[in-house]
Write a structure and sequence with these properties.
The protein has helices at 49-53, 65-74, 117-120, 134-146, 179-194; strands at residues 20-24, 42-46, 59-61, 79-83, 102-105, 151-155, 161-162, 199-202, 216-217, 222-223. The chain is of the alpha/beta class and 224 residues long. The chain has a single domain (7-223), classed as Rossmann fold (3-Layer(aba) Sandwich), CATH 3.40.50. Helix 4 runs parallel beside helix 5.
């Protein structure tokens, strides 16, 4: 059998009401954050990053069912969150995970680079957004669990290169980085979440915005 919708997924809604949740991406800024920082914190990790960091997290979220299978098998005691629709295709994939620690949420079809917050934000209260990166899905789920009195802190959501690196050391992101789309849509996704009352911030591992001399390059910003 495939990945059947589970109505009891609404149990996650407000499960950690009012708390702060860290959403762990894979950007190179993670090279300057000791993974022990997250050991006693509520976290939603994107795809394989918690395995790479070697930390246990409360939730792991990603777009792809095949990845969810691998993650759920490697970490059977952690909860994996995926869309009902495999984002590698247009319908529920026959290889969808059936593990008891994998939970699915309804979304619309993945729009990839065509994603636009104004057009594609879900209208149903228990649906999650999908955008050109699993980060959007993960941060929306994070807001779902902490509710309008909580806060979401993004980590490693760099949308650019730090000291010439796009990702944390040891992370293989594939070959495509639509940074212009990420950079444009990420603040808009955050604003949609903020409109519900949930606070959204980003963790800067350096002591100030000058990045302690490290360089940052994106499609629109150059620092140092």
């Amino acid at each position: 059998m495939g990945l059947a919708p589970r109505p009891e997924r609404v149990k996650f809604k407000g499960m950690y009401e009012g708390q702060t949740v860290y959403v762990l991406g894979s950007g190179a800024s993670l090279n300057w954050i000791d993974a022990r920082f997250f050991t006693d914190k509520l976290c939603v990790a994107v795809n394989f990053i918690s395995l790479e960091l070697g930390v246990d997290v409360e939730f792991i979220a990603g777009h792809y069912h095949l990845d969810a299978i691998a993650i759920s098998e490697a970490l059977p005691d952690q909860t994996v969150i995926v869309p009902e629709m495999d984002q590698g295709g247009t319908k529920l994939a026959p290889h969808a995970p059936t593990s008891g620690n994998v939970w699915s949420f309804p979304t619309r079809e993945q729009m990839y680079e065509a994603f636009n917050v104004d057009e594609h934000w879900p209208t149903e209260p228990d649906h999650l957004v999908v955008g050109p990166t699993s980060l959007h899905f993960a941060m929306h789920f994070a807001a779902y669990v902490v509710g309008p009195t909580g806060a979401v802190v993004l980590v490693g959501a760099d949308c650019g290169r730090v000291d010439g690196k796009a990702n944390r050391d040891g992370h293989d992101p594939g070959t495509s980085w639509p940074w212009d789309v990420w950079a444009e849509q990420l603040p808009r996704v955050a604003d949609r979440i903020r409109a519900t009352g949930t606070q959204v911030f980003s963790l800067n591992p350096f002591v100030n915005f000058a990045l302690e001399g490290h360089s940052y390059r994106s499609t629109s910003v150059n620092i140092n």
